[in-house]
């Protein structure tokens, strides 16, 4: 993923994702062509790293990001208190593991005369599933216009119906490994899943467009509004008491206070005030609170 290799890497991954033969050229080994391979990736990354990947214009324009389904759940830190899992949850998890193990142990469908060239059987859609898929396709297409809901994520939106059909196929086979046709129920569930990823793509795209400094200011404001119980705030309180590590120095904290002041969330006081039992020469009143 270095700057000079990123486009080549993305093109290669996209080609393999599409099911094309893998071509490798090495000086010592010559050219190698591997047919019948499939690519599946599950990547996990920290938010800042993931943001760089998701918003990389080279990867977006090449088409790699439209082949990836990204989800970034909001943090639940501070709410994950211990509780014993229920018997129903244990049984569901055991059933899941049992089903997954059965799939792993199944022989893979290979092309006659080969050991490792995949040739999966076809899985078709029922007539009802086809009609449902057409409805999903038209629903998405109608929102790809210049001012449509999906106009900012055309890459993923253009492949959304295909992704939904893939989801439906996986759900069908999970229900029965011997199934030969995708049902309308599984197609409907596939449509629900892809709409989640479309919504996530929109949210992450909009979040990335916001200045990182403003995002940090919003986090500090959330802390002030929910955790700080005084009507006013002072500089040292921000860099000493705020749990956000990015503001743990006076220069950064003052920059955040200035931004919140410019946006009307803080008002500088022109007189001394007692906050947390001490007199403060420099303090700011928090919007919506009173000194009375």
3D structure, described in words:
The chain is mainly alpha-helical. It is 49% helix and 10% strand. The chain has helices spanning 6-17, 47-54, 57-62, 87-105, 127-141, 154-175, 184-209, 212-226, 235-241, 250-262, and strands at 22-26, 30-34, 124-125, 181-182, 232-233, 266-268, 273-275, 278-280, 284-286. The chain has a 3-stranded antiparallel beta sheet with strand order 5-9-6. A two-stranded antiparallel sheet has the order 1-2. It has a two-stranded parallel sheet with strand order 3-4. The radius of gyration is 27 Å and the shape is elongated. The mean pLDDT is 90.
Key phrases:
single chain; 292 residues; mainly alpha; Arc Repressor Mutant, subunit A; 3-stranded antiparallel sheet; 9 strands; elongated
